[in-house]
Amino acid sequence: MSDLPPVLWLQAFEAAARTLSFTEAGRELGVTQSAISQRIRLLEDKVGQPLFVRYPRSLALTPAGRAWLPSVQGAFTRLAEGTSEVFGPSPGAPVTLRATPAMQQTWLAPRLMRFQQMHPEVTLRLVSAIWADDFGAEGADLEIRYGHGDWNDVVAECLGQERLLPVCSSALAAELHSPDDLAGKTLLHAAGFAAGWPRWLAQAGVPGLESRCQAMICDTHVTTLALASYGGGVALSHRRLLEASRDLVAPFELDMATDEAFWLVRPASRQLRPAALELWAWLSQSNQ
């Protein structure tokens, strides 16, 4: 570590290399242009090579400066991420909640509206995630994930057992009096669901009926729900999401259980800020 240049010199280099201006770098770091110039000189003496080409009215990176810049920027990024992971964001930062678009637009939307009415001092930030790789400990205070709850390094609270049932527009529902009436209709499939149409049709007493239906496969659940609301077919949805929908109805009462569920999740490696704890408690209680 003793061979590393001081952080102030590295900050000056990163800012000057990014803006290609000692003046702009000084303005960003709250020091004078001459202070930036001095730190860069000291840094160049330390590494033994020039990092900038100085022209009368402009600035450019040398090959060594261009090659080193990604490493310096990556180091600052990792330091910021590690600090946030261990200590959390700054106290005044928005509370970030990550969830799928379907969850945000249905179950979450009315609950977050009521939360903000009760806690106007808390700023919320919603981040969308679709696939499993989109979720993780970094970048969010809380998450709502879908799965079996067997994730490492998190605290997870199950939001309840999930049941799937067909949903569609009210106009299309008027044509569906029994599961047999799905023949010839479009079944909307959401990629990634462990339980899907073949299983529901089998439980409804019409196994294999999907072979007599048109099909559309979507990569997000929210897309199947949007298509269903416009009369574009029949989707499978969680009952909890249907309860918050204004445009979808369930043509049949039969639903099926799934061993996956929605989970309220937070990193186990750090304590939540008070505002994030308020949101955790609100979402947990609003599920009861």
Automatic annotation (TrEMBL):
Pfam family, one: HTH_1
Annotated keywords: DNA-binding, Transcription, Transcription regulation
UniProt keyword annotation of Lipid metabolism present: no
Organism domain of life: Bacteria
PROSITE patterns (UniProt xref): HTH_LYSR
All copies of domain HTH lysR-type, residue ranges: 9-62
Similarity comment: family membership: Belongs to the LysR transcriptional regulatory family.
Name of this chain's protein: Transcriptional regulator
Organism of this sequence: Salinicola rhizosphaerae
